[in-house]
# Entry
Amino acid sequence: MAAIDLLSHAHTTMPPRASSSKTAIIAGTLAGLLAAALAAFYVYQQPAQHGGNAPAASSQTAAQEQNARAVDALMALPEIKAWSAHIEKASAGRAHGAVMETSPETRLVDGQPYYQLSFFESTPDAAHRWESFVVSPDGKRILVDDIVSGDLLSLEQWRKDSAPMQRIATQ
# Structure
């Protein structure tokens, strides 16, 4: 009788075991993570061992860096900074200014590729385009894409013709 009482007491103080479905989920997750890690290791080792896609990968990385430089150059414009600050303040933080690539293909200008970027006011419901630009990969040349006329304007001409800083003064 004492043995039965001892067993029932020991049974009640042991922590409950995880259900078999929980164990299966955890094991499956770990197996999936391990498989993903091994696949990533294999994929990243192949180009290094066989000289396969290393040039393509470095070319893709260079393109991403150029795109980032173009976006950074555009975001450094005083108009973009002022517009972003205005949007944040006027919307009490519900809307934000954003620079987005409007086409995955570059646009040739004078035989040189340019990234096609636009500044948007991004709200929870929609994005409203304020202006479109083309930016050289090094970020040193920025042109305004007048979508009505189809012309590309220099920043100086755009500032003179459109007075973009007045846009936030009147809103």
